[in-house]
Amino acid sequence: GPSDAQNTAVTMTLPTDATFINANLPVGWFAADNGDGTVTLTTTNVLAPDETVLLPVTVDIAPGVIPGSSL
User: Fold this and answer.
1) Beta strands 9-13 and 38-43: pairing type?
2) What is residue 46's DSSP assignment?
3) pLDDT averaged over consecutive 10-residue blocks of the chain (71 residues)?
4) Residue 43: closest CA among 58, 56, 59, 31
5) Residue 19 three-state SS
6) Is the pTM of this model over 0.85?
7) CA distance 61 to 7
8) Which residues contact 52 (CB under 8 A, 6 or more apart)?
């Protein structure tokens, strides 16, 4: 919409064979591993309409996953 977003949260559901390792987030963003296969990214920053923010996270993939597999 046309309004700023405040107290934004993004919840990511990880594939079964992935484990959250860390996040290299912009200043003002925080990551929480919820322990249930989800990771929640939150910010105290105010986001403007149409603003884009990169939220890179690192996951570990289980050793039994065949390279090139779709998770």
Assistant:
1) antiparallel
2) P
3) 92 95 97 97 96 96 91 79
4) 31
5) strand
6) yes
7) 31
8) none
